[in-house]
Design a protein that fits this description.
The protein is α+β, with helices and mostly antiparallel strands. The protein has 14 helices and 22 strands. The chain has helices at 7-10, 29-43, 49-69, 119-124, 176-179, 182-196, 201-212, 249-257, 317-354, 405-424, 429-457, 545-548, 562-568, 575-588, and strands spanning 17-23, 74-80, 86-92, 127-133, 136-143, 219-224, 240-243, 272-274, 288-297, 300-310, 365-372, 382-390, 393-401, 474-484, 487-495, 501-503, 509-511, 530-534, 539-543, 551-552, 555-556, 598-605. A five-stranded antiparallel beta sheet has the order 1-2-3-5-4. β14 and β15 form a beta hairpin. α2 (29-43) runs antiparallel to α3, α3 (49-69) crosses α6 (182-196) and α9 runs parallel beside α10. The chain is elongated.
Length: 606
């Protein structure tokens, strides 16, 4: 007789799955880890929604703990066992400090700390612990298949929704204990993810106020500090003020301006007492308690958070701890936003230096340019130039470097000045490409030699991804223009670049130049050029592959000579109108935003 399956045997079993990732020790790490685990668990059958919510909360807290207290790269290793249990291990390279635990501890930290810390892990996991190895520390947790039942929960199927979707609701004197259970822990995890995804410090502070008021306090304010701020004191009034009653905000702001927080010595995050601004809060706010928290990230003070509760009750210790934990996440988010803003500024300055301030005006010709980098926060891989070369000649270039960011900037920083120098020295089009090709190859050889020396100096240890020499290939369309009576003589060559098109006034489109090898690939490559005459009304269109390879599903914009067909419909238009129509057609070809840099140059003989 067949055996009767037990309950456990009859239940659907989760498919065993696992994953691993190394994340930088930045404020973005918790959100990245949550997204990775969430995507994987969504594909695994037999996983309850409760377990997914608990797993995301634990992963977020462990990674946040590593970022805040170690600051090194974080290794996240998780697995979903056949039994349905979820196990996560989060490692860092800072074994000298134990993980923070608000429920107890041996006082190994330099200063007393409040907050929930690993209490969330203790609440949600059936077991957890810390493993020390030489030069590394790992905190692990194991969650049972259905999640841990919470006796404080109001329903057996409660999950992250206990945080009430972060909707602000007034705190209640008799309701703090009810909410400061599983709901508060979920609130903290969700708030971490929300703040980590912001790259604007003003938005971070705005979200901070919405998270705190009126759930945890009747009002709050944030003072931001930077390198210019007077040491140890937030200068002037607060940057943002919130109050549960909007008609009290301006009066409260005026009162707070007279009492900017003055943190004590050291980098203790708080809480510290703050003078109660009673007169600004009306009869209902004559008495109350205010606390100040220093916002610290990376060992640097970034600002101060002050919040207050009206009435004699003050703040329960659970609330002060929760706010301090939230303050750490706010500080991390502000630090990340400032770092992003600094990088964006550097990139913008670098980008301006890599491109001409203005394109030259050519007698007998009009020109139009479209330049749209895909990544607004870093140097583009596309570049262009149009400049006088002397002796009645003008030269133009449209190029595309393999890759983006700093490596692309290095290549553009080499190529564009050399193009101008060689052109003005009288070198013709093919000779310019020959010499630029050799320059890129020589530079790549020098970079490889330097990397080899660094490897030897490091004792043969492998270099990290991205630290070694990078290939520096460049596709380039380069040409020389010489106006004459009745037209313009154009000599040009394409090195691995989309071929240019010429539009005649009658709508005829033809391809000019011939394909040749990318620059920086083949040693001693010999390039050739060809010459054409642009008659009045003729238009030369030069593009990067962001135009020709714009995708819509499996199709590309230039499939079936799509670019030539689009250009043929531009007959009779001026250069600016041609450039704008092609740009619009490229954008409209796909519903999504462009996935590559886009550059196009139109030169029209008048």
């Amino acid at each position: 007789m067949a055996a009767i399956p037990t309950q456990r045997e009859s239940e659907p079993r989760a498919r065993e799955a696992r994953g691993r990732a190394t994340l930088p020790g930045s404020p973005l790490a918790p959100g990245s880890a949550r997204a990775m685990v969430q995507a994987a668990l969504a594909e695994a059958p037999g996983v309850s929604a409760r377990l997914v919510d608990d797993a995301l909360a634990v992963v977020s807290e462990l990674v946040t703990n590593a970022v805040v207290h170690a600051g090194t790269d974080v290794e996240v290793d998780w697995r979903l066992e056949e039994t349905g249990a979820f196990v996560v291990e989060v490692g860092d390279r800072h074994p000298s400090r134990a993980p923070r635990d608000a429920l107890g501890g041996d006082g190994s930290y330099d200063s007393a700390e409040y907050g929930r810390g690993l209490r969330l892990v203790t609440t949600l996991a059936e077991s957890w612990g810390v493993t020390y190895r030489a030069g590394a520390k790992t905190v692990w947790a194991r969650l049972p298949p259905g999640g841990v039942d919470d006796p404080d929960a109001s329903a057996p199927d409660v999950a992250l929704e206990v945080a009430e979707d972060l909707a602000p609701q007034p705190h209640r004197a008799d309701g703090d204990r009810d909410w400061l259970g599983r709901g508060a822990l979920s609130f903290l995890a969700e708030a971490s993810d929300l703040l980590a995804g912001q790259l604007d410090e003003n938005l971070v502070t705005a979200l901070t106020g919405q998270l705190i008021v009126p759930r945890l306090a009747d009002w709050c304010a944030v003072w931001l500090e930077d390198e210019a701020t007077v040491r140890g004191r937030a200068a002037g009034g607060p940057d943002r003020v919130w109050h549960a009653s909007e008609n009290r905000i301006e009066e409260l702001r005026c009162a707070l301006e007279k009492e900017p927080p003055c943190p004590g010595e050291g980098l203790r995050s708080g809480p510290e007492p703050y003078p109660w601004p009673g007169p600004a809060l009306g009869p209902q706010g004559a008495d109350g308690t205010a606390l100040a928290y220093r916002l610290i990230a990376g060992g640097r003070p970034l600002g101060t958070l002050v919040l207050g509760r009206c009435g004699p009750g003050g703040f329960p210790e659970e609330v002060t701890g929760l706010v301090e934990d939230l303050g750490r996440r706010v500080a991390l988010a502000i630090g990340a936003a400032r770092q992003y803003a600094r990088q964006a500024t550097i990139s913008a300055v670098l980008q301006r230096g890599l491109l001409p301030g203005a394109v030259a005006e050519i007698p007998g010709m009009s020109s139009a340019l479209v330049y749209e980098p895909c990544d607004k926060g870093g140097p583009s891989g596309d570049f262009y130039d149009l400049f006088p070369a002397g002796d009645g000649r003008w030269c133009f270039a449209v190029g595309d470097v393999q890759g983006k960011g700093p490596e692309a900037a290095v290549v553009i920083g080499l190529a564009r000045p050399w193009l101008r120098l060689l052109a003005r020295e009288g070198y013709r089009v093919a000779d310019v490409l020959d010499r630029l090709n050799q320059l890129l190859l020589d530079d790549a050889t020098e970079a490889a030699d330097a990397a080899a020396r660094a490897l030897v100096a490091a004792g043969g240890r492998p270099v990290a991804a991205g630290d070694g020499p990078q290939t520096r290939f460049l596709s380039l369309l380069y040409g020389e223009l010489t106006p004459y009576d009745g037209g313009v003589r154009c000599t040009l060559a394409s090195a691995g670049h989309p071929l240019p098109l010429v539009l005649s006034p009658d709508g005829t489109v033809r391809t000019v130049a011939r394909p040749q090898t990318l620059l920086g690939v083949v040693e001693d490559e010999t390039y050739t050029s060809e010459s054409i005459d642009l008659r009045p009304g003729d238009s030369l269109l030069c593009v990067t592959d962001g135009v020709t390879e714009r995708r819509s599903g499996s199709r590309q914009f230039d499939d079936g000579d799509g670019l030539a067909h689009a250009l043929s419909g531009c007959a009779g238009l001026r250069a600016e109108e041609i450039a704008e129509r092609i740009r619009r057609l490229v954008h409209d070809f796909s519903g999504g935003p462009p996935e590559d840099d886009l550059a196009l140059l139109v030169l029209q003989a008048e």
